[in-house]
């Protein structure tokens, strides 16, 4: 458990317990796959964000436990679907659900988790939170489609790339922090600050993820280095290198994106590092992390708010 989890440890434990309880189904395969991917763990930052935001806004009830579990179910559903679309075989250091159980069961259990999340959402009974979550799932789906369109396209711009990661990743971070504040009955100013914090934190996390894909290790990441390149995803390190490298270097990357595969991975990693693309990507991540911290300035000081500040720092310093 990371240090900022300790601030809400007992509540976080309740979230994990609720997640397990809500995986119940009369269909054994549903429970098996759901349990398999939940047991893989992960940082669980999105549900953590719900707890931190709600508590920092003075929430005294217990519905934030269910809301945190809802956010994690939605995230897990997107992972199940992502791994099928990307034909991934490794996540969090072990075989993906689709590699172990097959594509069709993974997609259908992802659908189950989405629907279970909305069942739980109805029980919370807050229309504003329902609106935010409904919009969020729609936007995430749009981002997935946009990423699919961009795959194999070396002419993808930095702006188009940022639009995809805003929708695919930052949107759920944003919803987690925003709904936590809404549940607590925070005023409009604080709700907006929390929403913006979540957005910037999510952008920072994805940018660092995309840098680590060319600067990390399989052991630390829990997934294969170069996965993005193998899938023809034009992420920021590649886009920057094509724009700032030599003609030969740009052509090497254009071909790799167009054709997919890892035939020239080592040469591409060396080129990315030589061109300063990883430094640039981390600078963009730092910008968003700094903006996230700025969103918290002026809000009432608390242990939870301090943890949110630390979370922004962690988004930059992590190796996994």
From TrEMBL:
The answer on whether this UniProt entry bears the keyword Metal-binding reads yes
* Requisite cofactors: Mg(2+)
Q: Does the keyword Hydrolase apply?
A: no
The reaction(s) annotated as catalysed by this protein in its Swiss-Prot or TrEMBL entry are: 5 isopentenyl diphosphate + (2E,6E)-farnesyl diphosphate = all-trans-octaprenyl diphosphate + 5 diphosphate
Q: What class of enzyme is it?
A: transferase
What EC number(s) does its UniProt record assign?
2.5.1.90
For this UniProt record, the keywords arranged alphabetically read as follows: Magnesium, Metal-binding, Transferase
Q: Please name the GO terms that the record assigns under molecular function.
A: all-trans-octaprenyl-diphosphate synthase activity; metal ion binding
Under Gene3D superfamilies, the record lists: Farnesyl Diphosphate Synthase
Q: Which domain of life is it from?
A: Bacteria
Q: Which SUPFAM superfamilies match?
A: Terpenoid synthases (SSF48576)
Q: Say which family it is in.
A: Belongs to the FPP/GGPP synthase family.
Q: What does this protein do?
A: Supplies octaprenyl diphosphate, the precursor for the side chain of the isoprenoid quinones ubiquinone and menaquinone.
Record-given protein name = Octaprenyl diphosphate synthase
């Amino acid at each position: 458990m990371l240090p900022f989890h300790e601030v809400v440890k007992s509540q976080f434990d309740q979230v994990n317990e609720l997640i397990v309880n809500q995986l119940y189904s009369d269909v054994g395969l549903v429970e098996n796959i759901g349990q398999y991917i939940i047991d893989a763990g992960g940082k669980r930052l999105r549900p953590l964000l719900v707890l931190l935001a709600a508590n920092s806004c003075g929430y005294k009830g217990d519905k934030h436990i269910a809301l945190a579990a809802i956010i994690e179910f939605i995230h897990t559903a997107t992972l199940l679907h992502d791994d099928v679309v990307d034909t991934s075989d490794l996540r969090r250091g072990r075989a993906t659900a689709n590699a172990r159980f097959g594509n069709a069961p993974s997609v259908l259990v992802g659908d189950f988790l989405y629907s279970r999340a909305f069942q739980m959402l109805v029980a919370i009974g807050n229309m504003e939170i329902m609106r935010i979550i409904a919009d969020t799932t729609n936007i995430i789906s749009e981002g997935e489609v946009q990423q699919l369109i961009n795959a194999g396209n070396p002419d993808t711009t930095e702006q188009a790339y940022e639009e995809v990661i805003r929708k695919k990743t930052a949107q759920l971070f944003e919803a987690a922090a925003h709904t936590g504040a809404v549940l607590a009955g925070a005023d409009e100013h604080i709700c907006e600050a929390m929403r913006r914090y979540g957005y910037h934190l999510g952008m920072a996390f994805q940018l660092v993820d995309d840098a680590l894909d060319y600067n990390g290790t399989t052991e630390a990441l829990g997934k294969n280095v170069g996965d993005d390149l193998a899938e023809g995803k034009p992420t920021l390190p590649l886009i920057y290198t094509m724009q700032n490298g030599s003609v030969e270097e740009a052509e090497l990357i254009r071909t790799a994106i167009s054709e997919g595969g890892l035939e020239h991975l080592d040469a591409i990693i060396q080129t990315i590092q030589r061109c300063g693309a990883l430094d640039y990507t981390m600078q963009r991540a730092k910008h968003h992390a700094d903006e996230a911290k700025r969103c918290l300035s002026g809000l009432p000081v608390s242990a939870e708010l301090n943890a949110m500040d630390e979370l922004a720092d962690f988004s930059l310093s992590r190796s996994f």
